[in-house]
Structure to design on (222 residues):
């Protein structure tokens, strides 16, 4: 079944920009619980733009109608059709006014791409709702999280002095980790990541998508 809801985010847009943002005929398409879909929707909300969300499943006829690969998430904006998270979020950040999701400084911009690449290549399976449980048990995932924990240290953000696409990519991975292992486990074994997560899980953009999903206190994975 295809569900369609209009997520206007008016109050959030007013708070960020001091006024109502004009209606944009932009549509984000994919499964509601998909990490990539959540990243794209967060980008819209953080940017302060209006968008429509249409939920469809992987491998469906509807997905194949969006692009020849059936790849999700997908974006429609008038005649524009895009797929893959990085292409969609790049378009959102550069096409619309609002605060930048990637710093303009070339070094900081490169660092955002660097972290997105690490999260995608090393923690990609942790971002999947179905694959996260197995990924947590993987030595490569554990090693990557330990290194990431050291890199974050006392940082509030992964890059620079603001919430960027790098943070948006990491949130679903850490969220899934908490859902399976528990928040206590995260703070005990990966304290820097735990503190970072606690700072950002209350963001309006994240809460509007995942506010009802509360990680277990102790978790289900030993």
């Amino acid at each position: 079944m295809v569900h369609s809801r209009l997520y206007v985010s008016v109050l959030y847009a007013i708070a960020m920009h001091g006024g109502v943002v004009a209606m944009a005929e932009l549509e984000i398409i994919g499964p509601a619980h998909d990490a990539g879909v959540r990243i794209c929707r967060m980008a819209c909300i953080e940017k302060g733009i209006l968008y429509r969300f249409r939920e469809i499943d992987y491998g469906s006829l509807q997905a194949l109608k969006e692009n020849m690969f059936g790849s999700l998430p997908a974006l429609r904006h008038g005649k524009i059709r895009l797929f893959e998270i990085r292409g969609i979020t790049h378009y959102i950040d550069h096409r619309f006014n609002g605060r930048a999701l990637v710093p303009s400084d070339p070094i900081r911009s490169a660092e955002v791409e660097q972290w997105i690449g690490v999260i995608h290549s090393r923690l990609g399976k942790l971002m999947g709702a179905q694959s996260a449980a197995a990924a947590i048990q993987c030595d490569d995932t554990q090693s990557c999280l330990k290194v990431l924990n050291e890199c974050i240290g006392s940082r509030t953000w992964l890059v620079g002095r603001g919430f960027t696409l790098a943070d948006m990519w990491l949130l679903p991975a850490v969220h899934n980790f908490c859902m399976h292992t528990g928040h206590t486990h995260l703070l005990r074994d990966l304290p820097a990541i735990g503190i970072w997560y606690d700072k950002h899980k209350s963001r309006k953009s994240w809460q509007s998508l995942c506010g009802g999903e509360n990680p277990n206190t102790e978790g289900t994975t030993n």
The chain has two domains: 3-95, 106-210. The CA atoms of residues 119 and 170 lie 7 Å apart.
